Structures are given as structure tokens and as C-alpha cells.
Hints:
By secondary structure, the chain is mostly helical. 66% of the residues lie in helices and 2% in strands. It has a two-stranded antiparallel sheet with strand order 1-2.
Amino acid sequence: MRTRANLDRTVNYAIYQVGWFAAVLGAARGHSVLGAAVAFALVAAHVAFAGRRTDELRLVAICGGVGLLLETALIQAGILHYGGNPGEPFWPPPFAIALWMQLATTLRFSFSWLDRRPVAAALVGGLGGPFAFAAGHRIGAVTLGPSLAVALCVIAVTWAVALPGLFWFAQNGREEGTGRYAFPRESVGTGA
């Protein structure tokens, strides 16, 4: 059973990485719609094969909503600027929301080791968030301002608070079968 859990986590992390690179590189190369479509498709595949589909879909929706709120606030504050985004200065581009939804797919799977460890989640968020945005900035998917240092500090604080909060949502309603894929279809329930 441990081997199966490790396989599920490895598959999940690989799907997350493919989605992240598709979305960010797509945006950097002027194909943000294509990148977002790949990321959204991978989120849909994750939900379709999750052991508790309804629970995963709920978590994806919550993370997408949190991402929409936080990204919008950071855009309004002048911390983030997505070039070519027709929704700016009010809304983030679809690929940014797709990334938040992609993150949701990891909370009960490859990042489950952070579950019920809010200090560790805050540290990972406070370091990983700025790292991801700095990478996106470096390849041209997002511009950070008013200065790079200020933007990264604001993003660090935002993510240090957001990631433990997202894990709180992931814990809520956790039942048998969460954090597992149903390959091939197993009798773990639909989450309904």
C-alpha cells in the first residue's frame, strides 16, 4: 500500500510540474491560452481519476477562488503585472488561476506531507511562492514591482499565510480515499 501511495504522489507531482511549465512557458511565449488549457486539462484529469472526485473538485474550486482573490489584490497593489492580460488591472489571467487550481491537486497528494504542519507549510509557502514568481518573472510570464525585492517580500508573506490556509481547507472533509488515484477504477467511492 505504501508503494501505491508513493506512486500516486509521484504521478501527481509530475502532472503538477507539466501543468506549471505549460502555463508559465505558454504565458511567457505569448500562448497563455494554450498553456492555461493544458493546465486546466490536467486539473480535470486529476479530478477524474481522484479517489474522492467530489472532495477534490471542491478543493480545486476553493483554491481557484482564493487564487482569484489574492492575485487580484496583488495586481491592484502593483505587485504583479501580467503583460497582455485584457482583464488587468482587475482580474488575473486564466493561466494564473489554473496554477492555483493545479496547486490544489497537490495538497492531498504530493504535498500531503505538509498536512497538519502549519509552520512547515508557512515556511514552504514563504520560500516556494517567491521562488515560483521569481522564475515566472525571469522567463517573462509576469512582471514584479514596484521593485523585485519588495514584490518578493510581499509574495513571501502572502504565501506564508495562504499555504497553511489552503491545507486547512484540504483537511476539512477529508475521508477515506482522499489522496489516492483510482487506477484502475477501485471501489473507493465517488465522494458524493
